């Protein structure tokens, strides 16, 4: 019996050893699966993070423009098709205002004078009247009575934000070309117009409203030559 008991004890110990080996293998397999799952989760998280960062890392092309006459270098703004409507409308009004008010054609003088006044504040209209008065020797009506004219080409429109958050300041760079009586282009000068503007109540006069339907109003205007030595220009023109 002692030998049988010893054999039974041996067999029980062997079975217990096998059970421990099987349990250990199961635990190792479970740990391995957990590690593999954690690795897959990390890989997926990394892929997702890269996918989210892709839109933030892109190349933005830009164009630098050098004026052949003045040598002034500026950055040409690129229109992406997503500009706010307000800025697009203001850009149009600013460019149109400078084109109408700073150019001169004797055949269109009366209409341009009235249209320019449709955008001006009362103070600027007083300056415009004084500038155009025939009693003023520098009035364009006197300067261009020989049939000469001036045309305007808008070069750029830039907007500036105030510290208070308002966005009602702009700078318009433009070139003015003199034309003699035979319409041959003459001297070209370059100017910078600093404009403070706002949108107010649309005008009640139907005729004025055809020019300015949104109540765009220029509150302050300062025009300076872009090239040192160019003759200064009156703000009322």
**Average pLDDT rating:** 80
Structural class: alpha+beta
Helix content: 40-55%
CATH architecture type of the largest domain: Roll
Strand order of the largest sheet: 3-4-5-6
Please tell me the total number of domains.
2
- The coarse silhouette is rod-shaped
Unreliable runs: 229-237
SS field, number of helical segments: 6
Name of the level-1 CATH class of the largest domain? Alpha Beta
End-to-end Cα distance: 128 Å
Count of distinct strands = 6
The CATH homologous superfamily name of the largest domain equals: VirB8 protein
CATH topology of the largest domain: Nuclear Transport Factor 2, Chain: A
What share of residues are in beta strands? 15-25%
Order of helices and strands: HEEHHHHEEEHE
Radius of gyration: 39 Å
The largest sheet, given as strand count, sense and whether it forms a barrel, is:
4 strands, antiparallel
Give an overview in words.
A four-stranded antiparallel sheet has the order 3-4-5-6, covered by helices on one side. The protein has a two-stranded antiparallel sheet with strand order 1-2. The N and C termini lie far apart (128 Å). It has helices at residues 2-53, 85-102, 109-117, 122-132, 140-143, 206-211, and strands spanning 63-66, 73-76, 149-160, 169-179, 185-199, 216-225. Residues 229-237 have low confidence and may be disordered. Helices cover 42% and strands 24% of the residues. It has two domains: 2-56; 63-225, VirB8 protein (Nuclear Transport Factor 2, Chain: A), CATH 3.10.450.230. It is built from six helices and six strands, in the order αββααααβββαβ.
């Amino acid at each position: 019996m002692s030998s049988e008991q010893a054999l039974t004890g041996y067999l029980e110990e062997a079975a217990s050893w096998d059970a421990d080996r099987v349990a250990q293998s199961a635990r190792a397999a479970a740990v391995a699966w957990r590690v593999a799952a954690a690795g897959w989760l990390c890989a997926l998280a990394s892929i997702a993070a890269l996918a989210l960062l892709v839109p933030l890392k892109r190349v933005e092309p830009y164009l630098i423009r050098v004026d052949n006459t003045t040598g002034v270098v500026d950055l040409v703004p690129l229109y992406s098709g997503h500009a706010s409507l307000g800025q697009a409308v203001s850009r149009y009004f600013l460019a149109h205002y400078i084109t109408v008010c700073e150019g001169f054609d004797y055949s269109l003088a009366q209409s341009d004078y009235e249209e320019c006044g449709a955008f001006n504040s009362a103070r600027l209209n007083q300056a415009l009247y004084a500038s155009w008065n025939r009693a003023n020797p520098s009035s364009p009506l006197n300067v261009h009575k020989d049939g000469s004219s001036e045309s305007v080409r808008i070069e750029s429109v830039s907007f500036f934000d105030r510290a208070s958050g308002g966005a009602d300041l702009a700078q318009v760079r433009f070139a003015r070309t003199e034309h003699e009586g035979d319409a041959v282009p003459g001297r070209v000068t370059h100017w910078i117009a600093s404009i403070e503007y706002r949108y107010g109540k649309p005008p009640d006069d139907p005729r004025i409203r055809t020019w300015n339907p949104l109540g765009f109003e220029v509150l302050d205007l300062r025009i300076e030559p872009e090239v040192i030595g160019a003759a200064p220009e009156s703000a009322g023109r």
